[in-house]
Amino acid sequence: MSALRRRITKLVVFLRPGKAERELTREVEAHLDLLQERYRHHGLAPDEARRAARRHFGGLDRVKEAIRDERSYRLLENMRRDVGYSLRALARTPGFTVLAVLTLAVGIGATTAVVGLANAVFFRAPGGVADPSSLVGVYSDISTTPEQEFIGFSYPQYQELKARQRPFTDIATSIRSSGTMRSKTDTRPVSMVFVSGNYFELLGVQPRSGRLPRADEDSPAAAPVAVMSHTFWVEGANKIGDTVYINSTPVTLVGVLPPEFDGHRLDWYPHPDLWLPVNSYPAIFSSNRLERPDINLMIAGRLRAGVSLEAAQASISPLVGDLDLPVFPNYQIDSAIVRPFSEGRLWPRRRPALQHLMASLMGVALLMLLIGCFGITNFLVGRVMARRHELSVRLAIGASRLRIVAQLLTEAALLAVAASLLGLWIATMIARWVATFPDLFGRISLDVGPILDSRVFFVAGGLSIVTAVVVGVFPALIGLRDGAYTSAQRVPQGTSWGRVLSSPRQVFLVLQVIMTVALAVIASLFVRSLARSLAVDPGFSTDGVVIARLGTGHLDDESVGQFHRELMTRLLAQPAVRRVAISINDPFAWGMALYEVPGTDETQRTETTFVSPDYFELLRIPLLSGRTFREADGAQGTALVINHILAERLWPGEDAVGRPLRFPLLTDRAVEIVGPRDRTIVGVVRVAACRNPLDEPEPCAWGPLRSTQANALYVQSSADIGTIGQLIRETARALDDNVAISRIRTLRQHVDDVFADARMAATVAGTIAVLGCGLLLVGCIALFRVMVSERHHDIGVRLIVGATRGHVLSRVVLQALFLTAMGVLGGELLAVWIRPLIAAQLVGETATDVMPYVVPAAMILTGSVIASAVSAHQALRIDLARLFRHE
Amino acid sequence: MTSESVKLLQGSLDLIVLRALATMGPQHAYSLAQRLEQVSEHPLTLNQGTLYPALVRLEQRGWIRGTWRTTENNRDAKYYDLTKTGRRALARQTARWQQLSGLVERLLMEPER
Fold first, then answer.
1. What is the mean predicted confidence (pLDDT) over A368-382?
2. Which of A475-484, A545-554, A813-822 has the lowest mean pLDDT?
3. pLDDT(A326) > 50
4. How many helices (H) and strands (E) does chain A have?
5. Is the distance from CB of A420 to CB of A464 less than 8 angstroms?
6. Res A846 pLDDT > 80
7. How far is CA A339 from the centre of its chain?
8. Model confidence pTM above 0.80
9. pLDDT confidence of residue A498
């Protein structure tokens, strides 16, 4: 009881120290008065009595300290005092404080943002679902390719699996698609998910208002209903009970989903607007595609209690192997892959590319932080050196070393805490900014909602602590060492000329230079790598090309071909239009196909898309041999154009034109196409990378566009984008009122959009790297000046004994240069040693590229010469008489 | 007084202060210090200020209570008095002290081998 009471009182005193302090002074004064009176009775004079009283009482300050120790929490009191002191110190140099906080905040913010995004994309379960840990994604795999394929299922396959599977309480299916929606107010493209009747129940999603589709509504006979995403409901003018027309089919809106549920997949931007029963798919899309074997339905399952992923996979694999695939006899599905839901936010095959991007960004962000830390450490070291006299006095009058270190660390900790708070805000801003890029790698959206969760806070907190330690420890140790010399003595002077690395400060300087050079080299390697990868030629010309997205979901395969031909003809008839082309997807949003390697029973992967005849000419893609497509190819459908990478891979050194290539399955995830499996190569073009120009060169193949759904319309013209956009809209509307034309922009803009995030990251990283290296450089220069200024005495002696000024100057500069050169050499060696560790993150980097190594070295060597020469010049102007007056 | 004996004294200071207040009634710090000097028989070796941490400690525990009053010589002084819990604590501490000192004494009396 008394212990508790004491603790409370201590806390009260800590929170309101003023009253206790005043009372203490009053009490001690009264005590001293009484003592003084006693000594006066002994016959001492008033002054002497007072002194005797103080002596008898004991050192006033020491007693007060002891009382304060007893009265409250010493640690907290000290902290308060340190914080107050540090705040005042930081306020005295607002420029440095702002710069330091900003530099660290950007580093911490960028790192936190990357961690947050990676966490959200790779590890976080989708929001709004119940018990996400037992949810899994089920895919099928084929054995003829070396990689795992993660293929979906057709509807009959799903039904068979659902009936026969054991490891899951249930499985549900979903498929993404887009169409055109006409409502009372407007006509717009709409993003949809078609789900089986048990989908929401399996996921445990409840409607926010209205209701979800009933199980009996998941039937081809039922009138189509849809449930709205929260965003769609909030931003649009549609209410529950309204009827909208999707691809001309009436659909009743029956409910709204909660805001935290935005579908369980991140690929395929934009986020879904509507969820419909999967059996209304045929009603929305004219042909009865649900029964087609090439449809790619995703399957989600909920594991029974106690069943592991591996057990589920082992149990379901034989079932998947048994599934009938009559259309593709050569295409053997033989096992299942089961993945946790949290990993299923992206199609698993997209993970590596995204992981690579995240790793690169992480490297840059951490480097930014590290450079920032070192720059600020340098500054603080300079500051501590300037305070060494004060520190030595404090040590001399009995301050403990721990107290001094704690005080010096406080400053760094304050900077780190401020930077972390700002950094969290910056991270949120970065995440929001990244979310505005709809087409990362063509199809992935990183619109993941708020990125900050407990895991990310943990990382940010850790970063803050590490930053404080990295920034604070070295200055604190330097301060302690310098302060340890009593104030009566000067800090030991450099040392004799000519001997290098003989003082700790010289060692520190060399270490600084090593770190500066190594970091600068690595930073420039990273920045150059990013810059290079972004300067990559997309592989085609964007000059004068406008791209628009076509929404023709209401048309069946026959009429859509007719529409495409008519649209292209009418646009070409316009005087401003030079060329028109259509491809089934946007640039970089390619499909994947498997081809049989001639002469083997192996299959391999190629990027695939389908394009209209003028496509290659419009984009000025260089034709290496053969020809591009003609009008007749579309009807026949057997022609194929491949890129030089694929040609070189299959027929090295020979002409590929005229050779056959067989595709066991030719399909695209976005638009299902089944064309002839046997194709003849008619042309070879030069395009290095189709899906992602940042990636390694990859094989690509183009088929002729047949009568099928297609997304991307390209128009090359001399007119400006406003005129041409208007022209496209009017022409399309004149042909078919239900066609939605959206996202009209220049092809250049589209390409920029796709890569803008990475380009911006490189710019920011480059700026920070330059800033950080600049800080380091300034720190090194400051250190030179301190070292030379400590030489004043030495220089004076030399001048007196007859050394010429030129001689002294050259000695100082040469020594600085020698120390720097040692550091530079060490830094370069360190960078060379580190480079292989980060080589995987460097794009297009060659070991012979010496610029990143040369520039930082040249900068710091020049800096050291200038700094030492200027300092030495100042030292030479010193007044010798004044310098030696005291000797 | 050696530093060791100071430490020993500080350890038992709480008990001494409680005891002094119990026998002498309310006292201010100065008179308590004088009392201590009398008892220790080395009036000038004790810094009177060392009493204060003990007073703060005891007051925060609620064993003594300080009130500002005027001395006979018409001066301001903070008088400390034992509280009820302080009396109980004194009894407890005294018993413990006697137990401990008895034990220590017996151990010290054992002949060395």
1. 74
2. A475-484
3. no
4. 26, 21
5. yes
6. no
7. 24
8. no
9. 45
Pick A826 or A539 by higher pLDDT: A826
Q: CA A710, CA B19: separation in Å to the nearest integer?
A: 98
Report, as an integer, the average pLDDT of A770-780.
67
- Of A378, A370, A310, nearest in space to A167 by CA: A310
Q: pLDDT tens digits, residue range A525-545?
A: 777 766 666 665 677 888 889
CB within 8 Å: B48 and A5: no
DSSP chain B: --HHHHHHHHHHHHHHHHHHHHHH-SEEHHHHHHHHHHHHT-TTTS-GGGHHHHHHHHHHHTSEEEEEEE-TTS-EEEEEEE-HHHHHHHHHHHHHHHHHHHHHHHHHHSPP-
Tokens of A22: 């005043």
Comparing C-alpha atoms, which of A468, A489, A486 is closest to residue A408? A468
Q: Compute the distance between CA of residue A278 and CA of residue A173 in angstroms, rounded to an integer.
A: 8
Mean pLDDT of the A575-597 span: 82
The strand pair at A591-596 and A660-665 is best described as: antiparallel
Give the pLDDT score at A246.
87
SS (H, E, C) A135-164: EEEEEEEECCCCCCCCECECHHHHHHHHHH
- Give mean pLDDT, residues A90-95: 82
| C-alpha span between A374 and A515 (Å, rounded) | 8
Higher pLDDT, A520 or A825: A825
Query: Can you give the pLDDT at residue A716?
Result: 93
Give per-residue burial for A367-401: e unless 16+ CB within 10 Å, then b. Answer: bbbbbbbbbbbbbbbbbbbebbeebbebbeeeeee
Task: Please spell the DSSP secondary structure of A246-282, one letter per residue.
Answer: ETTEEEEEEEE--TT---S--BSSSPPSEEEEGGGHH
pLDDT, residue A545, reads: 92
More confident residue, A334 or A179: A179
pLDDT band at A227 (very low <50, low <70, confident <90, very high): very high
Return the structure tokens found at A222: 């039922």
Q: Which residues pair with A180 in a beta bridge?
A: A189
CB contacts of B33 in chain A (<8 Å) are 31
Note whether B78 contacts A30, CB cutoff 8 Å. Answer: yes
Closest CA to A279 of A199, A335, A188: A199
A670 falls in which pLDDT band (50, 70, 90)? very low
CB burial string A136-146: b at 16+ within 10 A, e below: bbbbbbbebee
Tokens standing for residue B97: 């002290």
**Cis preceding-peptide flag for A270 (omega within 30 of 0):** yes
Residues in chain A: 887
Residues from chain A contacting residue B74 (CB–CB below 8 Å) = none
Are the C-beta atoms of residues A90 and A418 closer than 8 Å to each other? no
The C-alpha atoms of residue A715 and residue A580 are separated, in whole angstroms, by 5
Instruction: Tell me which residue of A789, A738, A761, A702 sits closest to A358, measured CA to CA.
Output: A761
CA distance A200 to A41: 96
Report pLDDT digits (tens) over A50-83: 888 888 888 777 777 778 777 777 778 788 888 8
C-beta of residue A694 within 8 angstroms of C-beta of residue A360? no
- Chain B residues within 8 A of A28 when measuring between CB atoms: 49, 52
| pLDDT value at residue A842 | 66
Residues in chain B: 113
User: Phi, psi at residue A661, to the nearest 5°?
Assistant: -145, 135
A57–chain B nearest CA distance, Å? 5
Per-residue confidence band for A327, with pLDDT thresholds at 50, 70 and 90: very low
Mutate to test the interface with A, among B56, B69, B74, B83 (most CBs of A within 10 A): B56
Q: Is A58 at the interface with chain B, CB within 8 A?
A: yes
Other C-beta atoms closer than 10 Å to the C-beta of A96 total: 17
Asked whether A420 and A73 are in contact (CB, 8 A), the reply is no
